[in-house]
Write a structure and sequence with these properties.
The chain is mainly beta and about 150 residues long. It folds into two domains: about 35 residues, no CATH class; about 100 residues, Sandwich (Jelly Rolls), CATH 2.60.120. About 15% of the residues lie in helices and about 35% in strands. Strands 1, 3, 6, 7 and 9 form a five-stranded antiparallel beta sheet that branches. A four-stranded antiparallel beta sheet has the order 2-8-4-5, with no helix packed on it. Strand 4 and strand 5 form a beta hairpin. The protein is elongated, with a radius of gyration of 25 Å.
């Protein structure tokens, strides 16, 4: 087969795919309507409304809230965390009241960490905030992105 013939064959198959049909005109299962109709597709971002909080503390060894409480009867779902400290320390992220640790990072002096879970990091108990507790006194800054759900 000559190169130009192969090119035309691929072009025809691509046109059918974009139309969402097979050679016989049958619909191809799983082809999005927007693709089949030629309509533009776009990423509208996440399907939730994120809340962002920024918290600083000179000494969080006794604990500090880093989120607000979720909507009544709902649980927090953490989507992103950025934490930095000017002193070497570990930073534990805990559920309010129960003290259940959901994650911990070890930071060097003047260190920063970004935590972006690949799936939901959902607190186990409704109506609870996310808190931090540090292993040493020192300036710490935490930004948390989250939303709440049942």
């Amino acid at each position: 087969m000559a190169w130009i013939d192969y090119y035309k064959q691929v072009e025809e198959q691509l046109a059918m795919l974009l139309a969402g049909t097979t050679e016989g005109g049958a619909a191809i299962p799983g082809v999005p309507v927007a693709l089949a109709t030629g309509a533009a597709t776009k990423d509208n971002g996440p399907g939730w409304t994120s809340v962002y909080t920024f918290t600083t503390s000179a000494d969080a060894t006794g604990g500090a809230d880093v989120t607000a409480a979720p909507s009544t009867g709902e649980k927090l779902v953490i989507t992103d965390v950025v934490v930095s400290a000017d002193t070497a320390m570990s930073v534990s992220f805990l559920e309010e009241t129960s003290g259940t640790e959901v994650l911990r990072v070890y930071l060097p002096a003047n260190g920063t960490a970004q935590i972006t879970p690949r799936s939901k990091l959902k607190l186990a108990t409704a109506n609870k905030t996310l808190r931090i507790d540090t292993s040493a006194a020192g300036n710490v800054a935490v930004t948390v992105a989250y939303y709440s759900e049942a």
